[in-house]
Amino acid sequence: MQRASRLKRELSLLTMEPPPGITCWQNENQLDDLRAQILGGADTPYEKGIFNLEIVVPERYPFEPPKIRFLTPIYHPNIDSAGRICLDVLKLPPKGAWRPSLNISTLLTSIQLLMAEPNPDDPLMADISSEYKYNRQLFLLNAKEWTEKYASQQKRASKPLEEKVNQSETSTANESTVQKRKGSNISKKEKKSRLES
Amino acid sequence: MESSDSSDKGNIDQSEAQRQSQLDRLDREEAFYQFVNNLSEEDYRLMRDNNLLGTPGEITEEELLRRLHQVKEGPPQQNSDENRGAESAEDVSNGDSIIDWLNSVRQTGNTTRSGQRGNQSWRAVSRTNPNSGDFRFSLEINVNRNNGNTNPETENEPSVEPSSGEDLENSQSDSEIPRSESPSVRQPGSERSTSEELTTEEASPPRGQRRARSRSPEQRRTRARTDRSRSPINPVSETPRRSHHNTSSQTLDHSSVNEAEGSSRTRQHVTLRQHTVGTEMPSENAVLFSTPETRPVPQAAGSSETNGTSESTTPGQRPPTIVLDLQVRRVRPGEYRQRDSIANRTRSRSQTPNNTVTYESERGGFRRTFSRSERAGVRTYVSTIRIPIRRILNTGLSETTSVAIQTMLRQIMTGFGELSYFMYSDSDADPSGPTPNQNVDASEPQNGGGGTSSNESTDVSSGEVYEGGNEGGSTSGARREGRNTRGSVTFEESGSLPFLSLAQFFLLNEDDDDQPRGLTKEQIDNLAMRNFGESDALKTCSVCITEYTEGNKLRKLPCSHEYHVHCIDRWLSENSTCPICRRAVLASGNRESVV
């Protein structure tokens, strides 16, 4: 019903049926500290990037939204250099749109969607946002560069911001190769689910 | 899927201890769940309203049971049956909690509270007349910036006592009681006679009821009339006070207000007052919010400070006092003419040909007028907010303390913020302010110049003393936040003065927008409730993602979405929309339905 059991259910759902391009797991067995990965969607400057996120579940979850931030640097109008994400479903009403019927899976999907469709009118990074609006080419270039620099899987091991997933490091690396191979498929599926949502 | 690998791995690596503790937690949650479902409706309400349910997963069933017995045996808490009978706030006994106080304001509409923090003492009185729908809230704060040096009686420590001076409360409330409109008569809509009392008060000589000028918390709150005779303040030292009128961020509000305080370190006597007086239209409520910056000279007789003297503020003479006096009353047809409303008087008096500036804004049905006028070196700010009475009627007279009032208050407070904002931009001598006017510009040099210099000089003299008080304020703000079970208000740590936090809490704590947040207990209890029966199709509560089991209590929102009672109640206590469809739960509330 409340946090613990709900989280347990959510995690098992995330494990059984993760949204396309998204993985989520417990960090060091902490129930309220999760990690997630979002694959950069095809036809976005984040393509082939693997973005790590930190999910901190507050005590009052689900009456409060989880706190989600990017661990991997990302060049995006709505995500700042600390990884904080400007997204309405991550905030409480009346400003935000969080509600208890949402869950971590839907939030991650929303973030995935935000990556594909930045919202320059509600910018967190003003300069990136104006770049996105008025100089899309440059924006794409920069975003791709960042993706390669910070989010490409080859560099994952040496990334400074990367949290140690110690024991599962190798397995996740393998996993991401798999995901990369499947990349195109996944992103098509993603698009579909975006339309639906 | 490949992802299951890593998750499983994580699970497998889970240490035994952690797993065990999580299992325990799950067990407790399960037990909690069971316990809540087995409660009778009355018991459930009792526990919920007394905030005894604790956190699921942490509280044990035994503890819950013990609490239930305790609350049943003990005398009913004042907040367990609000709105009926409960009288004035003196019974908010464990008065250290502002939250309690606010609750009881909302519930009974009649409270008096006071306290002292650091070198500031505050007192807040609010009362509601259920018959006439009048509501009055007044807040008076004395800031004794001197106390570090000259006034040993006031405690100067930043670490504020949690008990915000209840000892003062009784005596003060005693003094208040005779003036309060019999709160016991609470028959919604039955009578209007009580409004007469207000009328009388308003008709009484303006200066007769002036509150004492000492910094003692026992100061009388002044009544409607006195507003312009109060507050001899250095006009410019006051003007820096401002807050952001968009109220989009309380944090902003706080910091700016604080900043304003900091920059106005003169000893000043500030009176902020809000009145409601008769309006032209019988169908409207009018709230006049007038913030006399300085007293017009003819009125100055009552106190020693004239505008001129306030510029050369003599330190040590007068502790700064901030009074926020708000009255909201319903206006009956015909009343207006006899009343000769403050609004009109203030305005007419200050409407000298040269120096009147009026801004108007309209938002959400609340019309605001802001005017600034200046005469003989005295600046008067008047902000009038008009609130259509239907907003009040919607909720019914019986709920004068409910959301409607809160919305109004918020509007008023927003107006106040705007007012301050204007005042601020005014003092900045920034002609690019809203509707810049030649007259404004013309008047700036006189007042702005003189005031600024005096401001600076006093700045130096009382600066560090002020810091102390400020610190105290911030501590208390933080403390209050910790207590704020709603968790919705973030008091800026860096030096929010208690009184302003209080005002903000009272008026703005609901949200940053103009929409009210949670529902009241009555509103929640009025929603349909049923027991889940076996015949029902299998369904899941989307708050806890758990399937309903037989015997579960479900609540059905107007949009037909159902949830566990305890799940949705918690959500609705802080929010007002359906978690699934986001439709407003209160159809007729003063909030526009989200469709």
Helix content of chain A: 40-55%
Low-confidence stretches of chain B: 1-11, 75-98, 147-355, 380-402, 422-515, 589-595
Shape of chain B: globular
Total E-strand runs of chain B: 14
What is the number of helices of chain B?
19
Assembly level: heterodimer
What is the SS-derived class of chain A? alpha+beta
Keywords (chain A): ATP-binding, Nucleotide-binding, Transferase, Ubl conjugation pathway
Organism (chain A): Mycteria americana
Region (Disordered) (chain A): 151-197
Domain UBC core (chain A): 2-152
List the SSEs and their pairings:
The complex is a heterodimer of chains A (197) and B (595).
Chain A: H1 3-16, E1 22-27, E2 30-39, E3 50-56, E4 67-70, H2 104-116, H3 126-134, H4 136-151, H5 169-181, H6 183-196
Antiparallel strand pairs in A: 1-2, 2-3, 3-4
Chain B: H1 3-12, H2 16-38, H3 41-49, H4 61-73, H5 98-108, E1 111-117, E2 120-129, E3 134-143, H6 147-150, H7 166-176, H8 195-203, H9 235-238, H10 250-263, E4 269-275, E5 284-292, H11 307-311, E6 321-328, H12 335-339, H13 342-350, E7 356-363, E8 366-375, E9 378-388, H14 390-395, H15 403-427, H16 438-483, H17 498-508, H18 521-525, E10 528-531, E11 540-541, E12 546-547, E13 553-556, E14 562-564, H19 565-572
Helix pairs in contact in B: 15-17
What features would you describe in this structure?
The complex is a heterodimer of chains A (197) and B (595). With 197 residues, chain A is an alpha+beta fold. Chain A has one domain: Ubiquitin Conjugating Enzyme. Chain A has helices at residues 3-16, 104-116, 126-134, 136-151, 169-181, 183-196, and strands at 22-27, 30-39, 50-56, 67-70. Chain A has a four-stranded antiparallel sheet with strand order 1-2-3-4. In chain A, helix 3 (126-134) crosses helix 4 (136-151). The radius of gyration of chain A is 16 Å and the shape is globular. Chain A starts with a helix and ends with a helix. Mean pLDDT of chain A is 81; it is low at 156-197. With 595 residues, chain B is of the alpha+beta class. Chain B has three domains: 19-73, no CATH class; 117-166 and 187-508, no CATH class; 519-595, 2-Layer Sandwich (Herpes Virus-1). Chain B has 19 helices and 14 strands. Chain B has helices spanning 3-12, 16-38, 41-49, 61-73, 98-108, 147-150, 166-176, 195-203, 235-238, 250-263, 307-311, 335-339, 342-350, 390-395, 403-427, 438-483, 498-508, 521-525, 565-572; strands at residues 111-117, 120-129, 134-143, 269-275, 284-292, 321-328, 356-363, 366-375, 378-388, 528-531, 540-541, 546-547, 553-556, 562-564. In chain B, the strands form three sheets. In chain B, strands 1-2-3-6-4-5-9-8-7 form a nine-stranded mixed sheet, sandwiched between helices. In chain B, strand 4 (269-275) and strand 5 (284-292) form a beta hairpin. In chain B, helix 15 packs across helix 17. The two termini of chain B are 38 Å apart. The model of chain B is unreliable at 1-11, 75-98, 147-355, 380-402, 422-515 and 589-595 (pLDDT under 50).
